[in-house]
UniProtKB/TrEMBL annotation, chain A:
<feature type="domain" description="Histidine kinase">
    <location>
        <begin position="196"/>
        <end position="439"/>
    </location>
</feature>
<dbReference type="Pfam" id="PF00072">
    <property type="entry name" value="Response_reg"/>
</dbReference>
<dbReference type="GO" id="GO:0006935">
    <property type="term" value="P:chemotaxis"/>
</dbReference>
<keyword id="KW-0597">Phosphoprotein</keyword>
<feature type="modified residue" description="Phosphohistidine">
    <location>
        <position position="44"/>
    </location>
</feature>
<dbReference type="GO" id="GO:0000160">
    <property type="term" value="P:phosphorelay signal transduction system"/>
</dbReference>
<dbReference type="InterPro" id="IPR004358">
    <property type="entry name" value="Sig_transdc_His_kin-like_C"/>
</dbReference>
<dbReference type="Pfam" id="PF01584">
    <property type="entry name" value="CheW"/>
</dbReference>
<dbReference type="InterPro" id="IPR036641">
    <property type="entry name" value="HPT_dom_sf"/>
</dbReference>
TrEMBL record, chain B:
<dbReference type="GO" id="GO:0007165">
    <property type="term" value="P:signal transduction"/>
</dbReference>
<feature type="domain" description="CheW-like">
    <location>
        <begin position="32"/>
        <end position="167"/>
    </location>
</feature>
<dbReference type="InterPro" id="IPR002545">
    <property type="entry name" value="CheW-lke_dom"/>
</dbReference>
<dbReference type="InterPro" id="IPR036061">
    <property type="entry name" value="CheW-like_dom_sf"/>
</dbReference>
<protein>
    <recommendedName>
        <fullName>CheW-like domain-containing protein</fullName>
    </recommendedName>
</protein>
<dbReference type="Pfam" id="PF01584">
    <property type="entry name" value="CheW"/>
</dbReference>
<dbReference type="GO" id="GO:0006935">
    <property type="term" value="P:chemotaxis"/>
</dbReference>
Amino acid sequence: MGRDPLRYFRIEARELVDQISAGVLDLDQQPGPDLVARLLRFAHTLKGAARVVRQQEIADRAHAFEEVLVPHRQGTSVLPADEMRELLRLNDEIEAHVAALEPSSPGPADPRGTEPGPVDPAPPADDGADPARAAEPVMSEAAAKSPAHPEAGPAARGATADVDELLDAVGEAHTRFAPLRTGGHALDRLTRSAEALADQLRVGRAAAHTDAARAAAARLAADLAALGRRITDTVEQVERELDEVRGRAERLRLVSAASIFTALHRAVRDAADAQDKRVRFESRGGDLRLDPQVLNLAGNALLHVVRNAVVHGIETGEDRLAAGKPAEGSVLVEVERRGRSVAFRCADDGRGFDLAAVRRTAEARGLLTPGGTPPDEQTLLRLLLRGGISTSPTVTDVAGRGIGLDVARDVADQLGGEVSVRTDAGLGATVELVLPLTLMSLHGLIVEAAGAVATVPLDAVRTCVRLLPEQAATAAVTGKLAHDGQAVPFLPLARALYAGTTVPDGAGPAVAVIVAADGAAVAVGVDRLAGTSTLVVRPLPELAPAAAVVGGVSIDLDGNPRLVLDAQGLIAETARLGGGAEPAAPARALPILVVDDSLTTRMLERSILESAGYEVDLAASGEEGLELARSRRYGLYLTDIDMPGIDGFTFVAETRADPELAVVPAILVSSRASAEDRQRGAAVGASAYVVKGEFNQEELLAHIRKLAPA
Amino acid sequence: MSPTEVTDRLAALRDDFDRSFAEPARQHDAEHAELLAIRAGGRPYALRLAQARGVHSDRPVTPLPGPQPALLGVAGFTGAIVPVYDLAALLGHPLPERPRWLVLALGVPPLALAFHELDGHVRVAASLIVEEAGARAGRDVLRGMVALPGGTRPIVDLPSARAAVHQLTGHTTYNTEER
């Protein structure tokens, strides 16, 4: 610390410079005493800190900055243009000086590290006057000195908050361990009880002793069960907390989209100033967390796109008024997640692309045949996007726009994304850059369905509704759920996750998660909600094509992949399945209950039935069979005869005696082949009798299909 | 045995033991091949260890709904997410039971093949392997046979299995030089 007196100043100064840079731009758009006061405070703090560490250059400029602002303390009007320019100039100089304080760490990528003094934070103007010059160096320079320096500045600040959150999560996980610690004492106590019980059993033979011992054993068992439950709960909670910790730690690798906005705002402001236009900058979607590399590249491309929107799109004040538009133009940059991609959209309300000029240029360059059929808008836009137009030295206006698109297209090519353009003559243009996401952080709702665990992005979840069993059954049959006065298409998640295969046993949907995207909504039926979690979503690996419901994968605490669902995909899948009645798939038929005390037979029968598409429940005894039969609706009982306790005949007779269960057909499967047994089977009400010795898969299935059509 | 003999014998054993770790496992001379005797879909096969990156058992595989019935799902391997294909399904005779063994194929992109049982690891003389010259057409993933105790087993060629998966998924960057 002693060796580097600037260590803390650098951090503080960087943070203040970021706040000043963003504040000055806000001042341009929304002047007000609060903002002026805030800026004065930042500048004053910076001046004081700079003096302490003898950075006179910075202190002087911070002072000058204050001097410009002081007269506007009470004001609500826009600052005169020359004063705004002066503030921005001082801002840039301070930024450059602060950057120059960095140890050589930024390396050659950051020219400010080696060259103190003011630098133009925006890329060189590709204002169309000399497009050939602008095309080449613009990209590399812009890439080298993106003024937002997303890795150093705003990201660093964002990271501080994230680290705090991470630490909170670590602390939370830590406190969750407390019950485990006290559990140790409880375990000691129980061990002592068990030893005492053992002693009792050794010495006592009398009835009194036996009773006492039995009571002690019962107590011990109860205590052990309670402790077991507590440990299970605790472990579950600790796991959830650790999951959160891991998610937050992974999030540190990502940067919020807002970190590119200041640079874009500044580029818009500078371009507008140079062109003597008034342009308002707006941004949306800054909360989205993205891979810094993707964000950096997109930010650089957008710098050109927004500049071009101002220079070539937005008209002068007089022209705008004449066209019946407000004098102030508007540039809106929006960042939005779309399933497995992120969309960066820049929309302006200017004059739109000059497609006639594009056509003339294309014809002049032999890309289109003059006098041929008039090309449609899409053809012209494709030509523009393909480049070739931009290099034209003659139609400068079009050329300038083309360069911005070239940069966007380069980025898209590099990352496997796409650029698209929409233009409305006289009303504005929208350039959209859609990039595939490699890593993305989101908050997810963890859901369970038929034993599978998946995550739904929380931003797509509108609400969750508890389903009564009848509601769930109705929703499953009709494919619709009444919610909020509307019939929302219903998709049991298990059906989407186990598409084409047998859905394993499960309680069935007990909760409907209402998921919305692009103005559509579906109710996704899940067995249970298992909390929320911060997670980092990765793309599916190559060689793993998946249904559209899967948006990506995250990695759980044990290092195993967990599916992250895609809202658009869920909606599309529901539409594909028709949202109508239950499909005829055997997987959706009522399950079959197999009762047999032999493990081998149970497994054999299950395998036969499951491969035929049935869902199967197993019971190892007649008692268990009855219990299951009463707890769930089955399509068929398949039971052995010889079992300890309740035998197969009794099982069939008892179920026939119960009016609710009597409707479920029962098949007896036994090694007994005598006529008497067959008769007895028929007498108790069995629908069929299959002899194990002649066990024939097809015969069994034929019986079953007759009784319980799949 | 005298104490010195015991000490010498111990030292020799230790050396052997240490050497067995120091030597690269996959290195084999031309006359021998390291094979795994496996069962996939109830049938016996062999595969060449030299074509594998690793063998794992009982690793959780997250099922993935999608268009490929042979794709069992994805599994995590030290932070990487790897698709797992059912070898028996690739060979055309899948079983309902989920296979519990995974073999990671060499090459990119990452790929694991799942099989049901591992019968053992054998080192066999090259003369016991019946080579088949050249690739057979289509999605044939078997190449050659080996005579082992208990019968002759077809050899699953992992690069061919990879090629089959690439073909199934329309993955085009496959480079035949990997074979």
